[in-house]
Design goal:
alpha+beta; FAD/NAD(P)-binding domain; eight-stranded mixed beta sheet; 21 strands
Length: 428
């Protein structure tokens, strides 16, 4: 067994969170290495949203708007629509709403590759070790030893001052830290995701939620429009089914044919949108259950910490899973500036975010901002003539304000906040 005693911060997982952390640590002068199980980095996934709080962090990490515009489009509007196609609630987003930073709808895979290429450019090719998985850890007097499994079946160990588990919802580090944790939680919602080259709806960049909390579509563009007026539009089709027998598929994510699910949405036809037609023009369709994990009491075990989905896998109902992973990285970096490469820094990060973000995980189980559709369904079955008679405007606005506050992107608070990491800061 080979033992490498390099004294760096070891990052388990080369996803959005892990790569964001690598860039943050480089920015503050902390050596690190990313251990990634995939043998090659590929632009996998479809659309996600990056909220203004996370866009701010990406810009302060060193990215610019030209780079972000190449992988997505600034969101202009967020809208909920009932089963009859009528508007329930809408509001401007990003700069249009008064934030100092935009909200971006992006292709998840292209964001991943943007982060990866920047890590390689700034930290060097050896900064990301591919084809290797962190399977566990052992704490020591001067740090932590990560156990590694390589794609050829060989094992090794790597010593570091700290270990950060950014290894996703199936995290081996979390499993060791919390061996009694319940299994992955599935509430019964099944999602089908894909993209289609069609004309954007409502505005050039609107995020639209349509239907009820048990039967809905989410639609938004993730590219700027071409000369013909069409853009790459991300869609998510979702239904809730009986989950008493658990998830019966072999895996959590698979490609499927449209005929597998399109019948659920054949009646989603309105004068401004024909969902079946849009789905039939899709270039791909993937099925996965909407899953998360029960919150845990701490994300830290001495020199080891969890971040991103390893810490707080959450339903995508609030469009803030990837955003929170980026914020995690910056908060970890900020606490290293205060406390050095020590377990105290990780404990401070845990104190700052664990309880707060755990509340968001549970709130998203209640449909997050889509909870307005829950209320609508309870009061009128999703069909109405005058929304004010069913859900008064003040009630709708208060509902959304509470969610934004909990998720950390309330506008006044974010706009007034000092940078998480001041420019030029270095760990001494």
């Amino acid at each position: 067994m080979n033992v490498d005693k390099t004294n760096t911060v070891i990052i388990a997982g080369g996803g959005i969170g892990g790569l964001s952390l690598a860039l943050t640590l480089h920015q503050i002068g902390v050596p690190c290495v990313v251990i990634e199980a995939s043998r090659e980095m590929r632009p996998l996934g479809v659309g996600i949203n990056i909220q203004p709080n996370a866009v701010r962090e990406l810009l302060e990490t060193g990215f610019d708007y030209t780079e972000l515009d190449a992988i997505g489009v600034p969101a202009l509007e967020w809208a909920l629509v009932g089963l009859n196609g009528k508007e329930v609630y809408s509001e401007p987003r990003g700069l249009e709403a008064g934030y100092r930073w935009p909200q971006y709808a992006v292709h998840r895979g292209q964001l991943l590759m943007l982060l990866y290429n920047k890590v390689i450019e700034l930290l060097g090719q050896d900064a990301v070790v591919l084809g290797t998985r962190v399977t566990g850890y052992q704490k020591s007097d001067n740090g932590v030893c990560a156990r590694l499994l390589h794609s050829d079946g060989q094992t090794s160990q790597r010593h570091g001052s700290l270990l950060i588990g950014a290894d996703g919802i199936h995290s081996a580090i979390r499993a060791q830290m919390h061996p009694e944790q319940p299994p992955i939680h599935w509430g019964g919602a099944v999602m089908w995701r894909g993209t289609a080259q069609v004309k954007p709806l409502r505005t050039s960049s609107s995020f639209i939620g349509l239907g009820t909390h048990q039967h809905r579509m989410v639609i938004y563009p993730i590219s700027h429009a071409d000369a013909d007026g069409t853009a790459l539009v991300n869609w998510i089709a979702e239904v809730t089914v009986d989950n008493s027998d658990g998830w019966q598929q072999d895996g959590w994510f698979r490609e499927v044919e449209l005929d597998h699910f399109i019948h659920h949405f054949e009646h989603f036809k309105y004068d401004w949108l024909d969902v079946p037609s849009m789905l039939r023009s899709a270039d791909c369709a993937y099925e996965n259950p909407m899953i998360d994990r029960d919150p845990v009491s701490t994300w830290v075990d001495g020199p080891v910490a969890l971040m991103g989905d390893a810490a707080h896998a959450m339903y995508p109902t609030g469009s803030n899973g990837a955003s929170q992973a980026i914020v995690d990285a910056r908060v970890i970096g900020a606490n290293m500036l205060r406390h050095g490469l020590t377990p105290t820094a990780l404990a401070a990060y845990d104190d700052q975010l664990c309880s707060k973000v755990s509340e968001v995980v549970l709130r998203n189980r209640g449909a997050g901002p889509f909870g307005l559709l829950n209320l609508l369904d309870e009061r009128c079955g999703g069909v109405f003539d005058d929304i004010e008679e069913v859900l008064p405007g003040e009630e709708r606005r208060e509902f959304m304000a509470r969610y934004k506050q909990a998720a950390g992107f309330a506008m006044e608070q974010l706009n007034a906040a000092a940078p998480t990491i001041a420019a030029g800061s270095k760990v001494v």
